[in-house]
């Protein structure tokens, strides 16, 4: 299974994805999470005041939207 590295808007690695089967792998510290995303669905990762949305468009690609959030906004 070949995984593609996904980076956030600050250039940090957020997760790895495989568009063919929809696998999304995230790691945070010693915790590793594997999940499957259906075509048309999204997965959201929020870390250090940055939100990253990974959407599976087809069996060949994911799209990524990433943006910083204001930690003072409530």
The H-and-E topology, N to C, reads as EEEEEEE
- For the record, give the distance between the C-alpha atoms at the N and C termini, rounded to a whole number: 41 Å
Average pLDDT: 93
Radius of gyration: 12 Å
> Structural class given helices, strands, pairing?
mainly beta
β-sheet strand percentage: over 45%
Number of domains: 1
Helix content: under 10%
Shape: globular
Largest sheet: 4 strands, antiparallel
Spatial strand sequence of the major β-sheet: 1-2-3-4
Topology, number of strands? 7
Tally of alpha and pi helices: 0
Explain the overall architecture.
This protein is mainly beta and 74 residues long. The chain has one domain (4-68). 0% of the residues lie in helices and 57% in strands. The chain has no helices and seven strands. The strands form two sheets. The chain has a four-stranded antiparallel β-sheet with strand order 1-2-3-4, with no helix packed on it. A three-stranded antiparallel β-sheet has the order 5-6-7, with no helix packed on it.
């Amino acid at each position: 299974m070949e995984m593609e590295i996904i980076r956030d808007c600050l250039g940090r690695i957020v997760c790895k994805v495989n568009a063919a089967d929809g696998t999304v792998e995230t790691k945070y510290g010693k915790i590793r999470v594997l999940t499957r995303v259906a075509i048309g669905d999204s997965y959201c990762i929020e870390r250090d005041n940055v939100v990253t949305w990974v959407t599976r468009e087809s069996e060949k690609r994911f799209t990524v939207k990433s943006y910083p959030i204001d930690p003072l906004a409530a």
